[in-house]
Amino acid sequence: MGYLKILVIGEIGSGKSSIVYRLAYNSFTEKYKATIGCEFGMKSFCIDGDEIKVQLWDLAGQDRLNLVSRVYCRDASGAIVVADLNDRESMQKAPLWKRSVDENISGADGNSIPMILCLNKVDLVHQDKPSESTLRELANQHGFLNAFCTSAKTGENIEEALEYLIRSVKDRIIKTMCATESILLNLEDHTKKLESRRSKKCCS
Ligand code: GDP
Ligand code: MG
Q: What distance in angstroms lies between residue 76's CA and the mean position of ligand 2's atoms?
């Protein structure tokens, strides 16, 4: 497997660049630096003995929802939608970010690509953190595979969230490959039958 392209999207200030920075360099900075253009972060995972390299695409902060383009989405295997848990608007916009990707891309099997929701800056929440069941409900309601409370600042759940997404992407690739293989085997079988029927006709 080469690189997997994973999109990191969401409202400005939700912590997208900080999450990519945490994953790529295991580090965090409080200093706000608006992302210009598109930045990349690389991360390698070892999953069930396979080394998987992930290329994280961090969309420019100033881009708006309606500017998530087909070019940006091309060949993406999955996406992380980031929302600031302490910012109502950032939370409300998360499903719209998901939909903007759904409108631009579908995987090889024609379904939407796997996406998870990261409710970031959980280190700033001291009471009423969303429970596991609330997170699951939120994910189900909006078509995410799962939702996680994360903190780029402390690193809480950041690797876990990405690993979950990568496992789902891997499972999906394997399923697509198996489906393709079975189509090819059927085709091969069918061709053999046709050939044998044709050769019988020739002999008679
Ligand atoms: P982006 O616009 O989505 O890329 O957001 P940034 O990664 O630039 O983060 C915006 C601001 O939030 C910066 O000042 C970060 O230091 C801060 N920030 C990002 N993630 C966290 C987090 O998990 N916890 C806290 N406390 N601050 C964060
Ligand atoms: Mg940024």
A: 19
Ligand 1 centroid to Cα of residue 171, in Å, is 31
DSSP state string for 27-94: ----S-----SEEEEEEEEEETTEEEEEEEEEE-TT--GGG--HHHHTTEEEEEEEEETT-HHHHHHH
- CATH of range 3-203; options 3.40.50.300, 3.30.420.40, 3.30.56.10, 3.10.20.740: 3.40.50.300
Which bound ligand lies closest to the C-alpha atom of 9?
1
Give the pLDDT confidence of 172-200 residue by residue, as tens digits.
888 877 777 777 888 888 888 888 888 87
The domains of the chain are located at: 3-203
Predicted TM-score (pTM) of this structure: 0.85
Instruction: Give yes or no for a contact between 153 and 28, defined as CB atoms under 8 angstroms apart.
Output: yes
